[in-house]
Write a structure and sequence with these properties.
There is one protein chain. The protein is mostly helical. The chain contains five helices and no strands. Helix 2 packs antiparallel against helix 3 and helix 3 packs across helix 5 (59-72). It is elongated, with a radius of gyration of 15 Å. The termini are far apart. 11% of the residues are buried.
Length: 73
């Protein structure tokens, strides 16, 4: 019964979480900031949107990603 109550109160999954996971994975495992910045642009994400959906990226990673996203503009 508790399961059904929690299910009724659950929020729909944010589809961008999977995209942000791929962006984070690209940065953390491959150090490929170019590909990560392309994914940000292709999915119309903002840096704020990326930051809100992950805590895995440190300040240096975010700064490098921001540089690459700005360079694409």
């Amino acid at each position: 019964m508790s399961y059904l109550k929690n299910l009724a109160n659950s929020q729909p999954k944010d589809p961008l979480i999977d995209v942000v996971y791929e962006i984070t994975n690209c940065i953390k495992t491959k150090k490929d900031f170019e590909q990560a910045s392309l994914m940000v642009k292709q999915n119309n994400l903002t840096l704020e949107g990326v930051i809100k959906r992950t805590s895995k990226l440190d300040l240096e990673d975010l700064a490098l990603l921001a540089d690459k996203v700005i360079a694409l503009s």
